[in-house]
Amino acid sequence: MKKFLASTVAASALALMLGMASARADDAVDPNIKQGGAITITYKDDVATLDPAIGYDWQNWSMIKSLFDGLMDYEPGTTKLKPDLAESYEISPDGKTFTFKLRHGVKFHNGREMTADDVKYSLDRVTNPKTQSPGAGFFGSIKGYDDVAAGKAGSLSGITVVDPYTIKFELTRPDATFLHVMAINFSHVVPKEEVEKYGADFGKHPVGTGAFKLAEWTLGQRIVFERNPDYWHKGLPHLDKITFEIGQEPIVALLRLQKGEIDVPGDGIPPAKFQEVMNDPEQKARVVVGGQLHTGYVTMNTTMAPFDNVKVRQAVNMAINKGRIVQLINNRAVPANQPLPPSMPGYDRAFKGYAYDVAKAKALLAEAGHPDGFATQLFAMNTDPNPRIAQAIQQDLAAIGIKASIQSLAQANVIAAGGDKAGAPMIWSGGMAWIADFPDPSNFYGPILGCAGAVPGGWNWSWYCNKDLDAKAAEADSVVDPAKSEEREKMWSAIYDKIMEDAPWAPVFNEQRFTLKSARMGGADNLYVDPVHIPINYDNVYVKDVQ
Amino acid sequence: MIAYLGRRLIQSLLILLGVSLITFALLYLLPADPVRQIAGRSATPETVENIRRQLGLDQPFIVQYWHYLTRLVSGDLGRSYIQRSEVTELIVSRLPASLLLMVGAILCELAIGLTMGLIAAVRRGTATDQTLMVVSFVGVSAPQFVVGLLLLYVFAVRLGWFPIGGYGSWRHLVLPSLTMGILGAGWYARMMRSSMIDVLRQDYMRTARAKGLARGAILFRHALPNAILPVVAMIGIDVGIFMGGIVVVESVFGWPGIGQLAWQAIQRVDIPIIMGVTLVSAVAIVLGNLLADIIAPFIDPRIKLR
């Protein structure tokens, strides 16, 4: 499934947008860290593609970040934006023009220097319908996007190469998220000659400007990254080599880690072994815990009776015992009361949500005309722990008289049912839940709670469409001025508070990340729960045995 | 013989055509939209429709199936929806591993199964016989997932004799082959036992004994060759069971074969890969059965190919 990432903390990611001119990246790398050594990461599934225009799952997302670079990036381990291939940038007072100055002397892995033409080419390519990029929609605010998307133009008219080291973007509307968009993988820079050479197989022969280059790819077995000796960011990466071993069951990966054969199990600690690992002080000491921009929720189809009645939806919110569900998954999450996760800017700390209250839920249900409850269906994905969580929700609902039968299906089938207006009355989102693409409150709205997502095949499984909120969302996103970022976050908080009044969702929990590493791995803890790099930030970690 | 082969090949092609049609239809009817899957969550409706058009998934079923067939004839299995690579390339790169595992598994099942069956037949009715038959029954009925993890735990983790999963050397091959082989071994032990008992009852065995031949000579020179042939002829049919088993065993051991590829594709609804692996497996099963049928008359002259 497409899981995306992004991040935590950062009181204000927008702080960096400060001012017209802006910060140069702080390139400080600890000079005491010696370069060298190799690590091994395991994965169960094949790596899909390493083409930045196409790769969109949590596994290749971070790998692509190490092979390619974009104009913007985040400070390692944080959600703080910083210029990357760009050296600096300027935003016009109306928030509609962004001008980036590029670094000199950045080279692709094939030795050629990267220039502004490559940036333009890369964005023209990702938005071209022929590329079939899942991320094309992120660039909708760039002038000329509609023509390119419709196949009427081959190039975005809003992007101008001013000189080889300067590029200008004109937008159709002020877009407060644009710098984030310039940091996501889809806007990473690729060399035209290599893309043309490999065509549809560029994803198997990636050539970028990143810290590592691809040394070997044996299908179904292993991928090897080698240090890029010409990386523009001096002092990085610390490691000489990363081997990704593919096809390893998480439980086998854990056994191998315990024997010292690998360094990080990419798929994490298998749920069945979680308690065992956490009860062992030696292993627990090597687990790094961090927040994640994730919310698990129950959607209620607001167009289907009886969920078209807001009282019924509120009753469901009060009926679910979230604390018990969190225990059910070994406390790998924290209870949620609103759509945004706590580490997302815009999270409303004062908001209390609906407390667990069976009596009140029953009363609301009676008010709504269902004193004896009703029968309905709860869809859930069929992989552990989702059926167990669905059963817990089923029991909670039974306590207020709602008899929900569980439809436990493969992921694709649940997604299909959710995207069908008459498909699913209730869905537990586990395994398919929203993880933000970038750390901005707007990212939790459009596709999953806005009118744009309430279409056949969409991700707004509640089919909740509030035109008034859509207008407020657009208004919030037009506040580009970094000085007003706090005001913008407040606008978003108000939007989510209003959504919770209408209760199309019952938010259940926010997942936490638990990364297990070998004893030889070094580097700050936040590199191992880096909000945009899952499982770890490959460029910045190091091994202690070469120090 | 040639006429027989020709007829069988035509039959086989019809079977494969049927398999392709049924699989294609089932995947078409699946209530999951592959385009949504490719487009991801943030795609706009236009992006989704654009991808649907480019993949030809907006066409009616018959047209889609026809396109698939015409490409198939030229050996093109299409491109994976998720991995975006040629399905042929993905399968070809993984086929050697699966074939190697198949050879390893067959050696294991023959070695274990025939030995057990032989001993059980000779010791017929004794506690040894009964124990062996119970063991073979357990072998046939134990889930391969459990057997695999158990073997991994004991021989790789605890004893450290073999690597914990992976691919590369003969040591990697032992445990997955054994896991696959245990199932077949139970099966072969039972067949070998009854076949051997059958042979031992024959008149010529009594003659051999009457001539005063040594027990070992009777067993290994006269009985075994006759008993073993009908059993070995079953290997062709084994291919079908094998194709089902590799999906599980390859996943447990991280063995980079087509079973693992199929398992991943099923989880991600990667239709071109599911189609490709299904067809390749069907070809293997059809060939296996054909082989078994062709070998049969050589082993037992009473069987005639018609």
Which descriptors would you attach to this protein?
heterodimer, A: alpha+beta, 7-stranded mixed sheet, 16 helices, 26% helix, 19% strand, globular, B: 306 residues, mainly alpha, 0% strand
Model description:
- The complex is a heterodimer of chains A (547) and B (306).
- Chain A is globular, with a radius of gyration of 24 Å.
- In chain A, helix 9 runs antiparallel to helix 11.
- In chain A, strands 13, 14, 15, 16, 17, 18 and 19 form a seven-stranded mixed β-sheet that branches. In chain A, strands 8-9-10-1-11 form a five-stranded mixed β-sheet.
- Chain A is built from 16 helices and 22 strands.
- Chain A is an alpha+beta fold and 547 residues long.
- The longest helix of chain A is centred in the C-terminal third of the chain and has 18 residues.
- The N terminus of chain A is likely disordered.
- Chain B has 306 residues and is mainly alpha-helical.
- The radius of gyration of chain B is 24 Å and the shape is globular.
- Chains A and B meet through helix 6 and helix 13 of A and helix 2, helix 3, helix 5, helix 7 and helix 11 of B.
Gist?
The complex is a heterodimer of chains A (547) and B (306). Chain A contains 16 helices and 22 strands.
Topology:
The complex is a heterodimer of chains A (547) and B (306).
Chain A (H helix, E strand, L loop, with lengths): L37 E6 L14 H10 L4 E3 L6 E3 L2 E6 L5 E6 L13 H12 L17 H5 L9 E5 L2 E5 L7 H4 L10 H7 L13 E7 L3 E6 L13 E6 L3 H9 L5 E2 L5 H9 L1 H4 L2 E4 L3 E7 L9 H10 L2 H7 L4 E3 L22 H10 L7 E7 L4 H13 L4 E7 L1 H8 L7 E3 L5 E2 L10 H4 L17 H11 L7 H18 L2 E7 L1 E4 L4 E2 L19 E2 L4
Parallel strand pairs in A: 1-10, 1-11, 15-16, 15-17
Antiparallel strand pairs in A: 2-3, 4-5, 5-7, 6-7, 8-9, 9-10, 12-20, 13-17, 13-18, 13-19, 14-19, 21-22
Helix pairs in contact in A: 9-11, 15-16
Chain B lengths: L1 H28 L4 H6 L5 H10 L6 H13 L13 H36 L4 H15 L2 H15 L11 H32 L1 H8 L4 H18 L2 H19 L4 H10 L3 H29 L7
Helix pairs in contact in B: 1-13, 5-6, 5-8, 5-11, 5-13, 6-8, 7-8, 7-11, 8-10, 8-11, 11-12, 11-13, 12-13
